């Protein structure tokens, strides 16, 4: 099964072509913010290098969040369009699960993205071929995240914690106070890689492209302002979790 995977969730752009669990090619642009300009040319480049067209792709996969509001919309909109026009399968993969997928060995993986002011988009995963979400993906203040880790560790054997993503090393004193062996991910583990999204996509359940939505895990300011102005309830299918 040929899978084309995309992540535009952060300032790191990643696109990959998989044949099932095998990554055929992965292209990455680090510290770039022009995803809308670079995404389509990179996809075209991958297809041409492998003598393929979009019609040859069996399944499309995309990081659905958390991440940059604008970035997520670029990737999801592109993949939805491909799947709809070509009548192909599409799956959405958690950004945090994709980060956790990059960690091998027996560990609790805390995948997090810096949301500023000691807040993080984060979740906890048991490492494995398909990382199991054991601390729910959410928008956490660091103290709430540490408490969630403590509660999980109190009920489960945790031999080691691996922190991957961005900004968590700033919390080293609080992490050290957990009294559990830990380490931080390396440069490759700390970015979202489309090849890993493709591997997770193999066993993921395809959905209707129209139902493929971003998981921001925090309400946008526009939605908060609209709610205050109108008093109307938030949409139930928006996949927002909370405002912090």
UniProtKB/TrEMBL annotation:
<dbReference type="InterPro" id="IPR022496">
    <property type="entry name" value="T6A_TsaB"/>
</dbReference>
<feature type="domain" description="Gcp-like">
    <location>
        <begin position="32"/>
        <end position="169"/>
    </location>
</feature>
<protein>
    <submittedName>
        <fullName>tRNA (Adenosine(37)-N6)-threonylcarbamoyltransferase complex dimerization subunit type 1 TsaB</fullName>
    </submittedName>
</protein>
<dbReference type="InterPro" id="IPR043129">
    <property type="entry name" value="ATPase_NBD"/>
</dbReference>
<dbReference type="InterPro" id="IPR000905">
    <property type="entry name" value="Gcp-like_dom"/>
</dbReference>
<dbReference type="Pfam" id="PF00814">
    <property type="entry name" value="TsaD"/>
</dbReference>
């Amino acid at each position: 099964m040929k899978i084309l995977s995309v992540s535009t969730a952060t300032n790191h752009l990643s696109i990959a072509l998989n044949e099932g669990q095998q990554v055929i090619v992965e292209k990455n642009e680090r510290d770039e913010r022009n995803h809308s300009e670079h995404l389509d040319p990179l996809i075209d480049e991958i297809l041409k290098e492998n003598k393929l067209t979009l019609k040859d792709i069996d399944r499309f996969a995309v990081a659905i969040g958390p991440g940059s509001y604008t970035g997520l919309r670029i990737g999801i909109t592109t993949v939805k369009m491909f799947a709809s026009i070509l009548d192909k399968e599409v799956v959405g993969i958690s950004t945090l699960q994709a980060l956790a997928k990059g960690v091998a060995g027996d560990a609790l993986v805390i995948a997090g993205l810096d949301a500023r002011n000691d807040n993080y988009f984060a979740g906890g995963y048991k490492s494995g071929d398909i990382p199991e979400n054991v601390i729910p993906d959410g928008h956490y203040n660091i103290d709430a995240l540490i408490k969630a880790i403590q509660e999980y560790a109190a009920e489960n054997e945790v031999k080691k914690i691996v922190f991957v993503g961005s900004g968590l090393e700033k919390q080293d004193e609080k992490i050290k106070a957990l009294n559990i062996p830990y380490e931080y991910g390396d440069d490759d583990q700390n970015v979202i890689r489309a090849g890993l999204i493709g591997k997770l996509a193999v066993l993921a359940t395809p959905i209707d492209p129209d139902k493929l939505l971003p998981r921001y895990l925090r309400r946008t300011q526009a939605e908060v302002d609209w709610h205050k102005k109108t008093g109307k309830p938030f949409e139930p299918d928006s996949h927002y979790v909370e405002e912090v």
